[in-house]
Design brief:
It is a single chain. The protein has 299 residues and is of the alpha/beta class. The chain has 10 helices and 8 strands. The protein has an 8-stranded mixed sheet, with helices on both faces. The termini are far apart.
Amino acid sequence: MAKPTIPTEEYMISGHMACLGCAAPLAMRYLLKALGKRTVVSIPACCWAVIPGVFPYTNLKVPLVYTAFEVTGASISGLRAALDARGIKDVNVVGFAGDGGTADIGIQALSGAVERGENVIYMCYDNEAYMNTGIQRSSLTPFGAWTTTTPVGKTKFWQKTQKKNMVEIMVAHRIPYAATVSVAYPEDFINKVKKAASIEGPKYIHAFAPCPTGWRVPPEKTIEVARLATDTCIFPLYEVEYGKYKITRKVVNKKPVAEYLKMQGRFSYLGEEELKKIQEYVDKEWELLLKKEEITKEW
């Protein structure tokens, strides 16, 4: 019998209120497989504020604290301080927020927490818009995407800017560890979370988590579209440990970004000009990442 490649213990039990094919439950499941039961999670307003179910029901086997949209960084700082005051050092404190609660509304509290050097883990599960309130754009919505606040139609008022690079923002804070993970690669996902837990200080992990409802993708295509995001290098997998970059899935033969975009209804109206622009941007960012890895390999 083959040995499992990921931990068999489950800390997210069956039954939740996520949409069909939602990747956010997988992100939580892999996170807890890596961290185990000695973990407390703080969640702001986001899809995961409803996924566990209505109180007193829950689908998590670890303590869960709901907090306001903008204060996840402050919440986990307080939890860490309270545990430390009681001499409890073996509990992982995790902030688990969506892209809006991380890159937009919660970025000041997150910046404060990591700047103070809090010994916490912060995971952003990125589904590239405010999905639980009706698919409004966030600053992590990619260029060219349709959302309800970047409509298409005759106006062509689609998302006009590129995604904010949250990993680079965290690296600029000089934190000890930052990484990207994807639900399509659970071994890589869990290994990085385990490494984060072993490092003292603030850690930031950016999880790629497709939303079939908002992306206009069939629910059964969640993992396929997530895998294609990495294989096209639009979402590369890498880590930055004390400033040293390491690409954990080196893509040799990149697939065209158009393959990834054409799977999704939110990009269905894009023309060749826009597709070319996106490909050029992805190629440039990938080359930049390769250079960062090369420059920092001796650090």
